[in-house]
Amino acid sequence: MLVVASQPLSIDELAAATADDAERIETALALLGERYREGRSGIVLEHVAGGYAFRAARDAAEACSRLFGKPAERGLTQAALETLAIVAYLGPCTRPDVARIRGVAADSAVAGLVERGLLSEAGRENAAGGAVRYRTTPLFERVFGLGSLSELPRLEDLGGDAEEIRARLHAVAERRTA
Q1: Residues facing 37 on adjacent strands
Q2: pLDDT (tens digit per residue) in 95-104
């Protein structure tokens, strides 16, 4: 199942598909995880985006990217990376929120990230007619190797002026809830 799946599969999805017990699925995944861990094979089983998926091992990643083209995170502009970070840490949020934090228009960056499948719509602010809110997608988590957004690095660990970043994020969050 994991070999042919186009996205990570949860234990519940695997149990339902195989008509097997979730505990047995967990045991099987642990055995597969040991067999297909980094350094032992050209593929790796990883827990990512709330499920399990095979991916190319680091040793094989360069050859795979030459064979299959650029992955979603390659070729992202600085504006796109900044926008992704804002939405990941603060989201769901609107384009105007992102623009206020970055200090420049965010329309192009958001549109490009939606097109790549890294952001998706998450409703509207203040009902119909309000600005569209965006959130990161499971593809974002998968591409960046995260099991969930809770695995993002803490702002303090990123270097730079974490207080300035935090203040800008909180200022926008306060305006949204006011």
Answers
A1: none
A2: 988 888 888 8
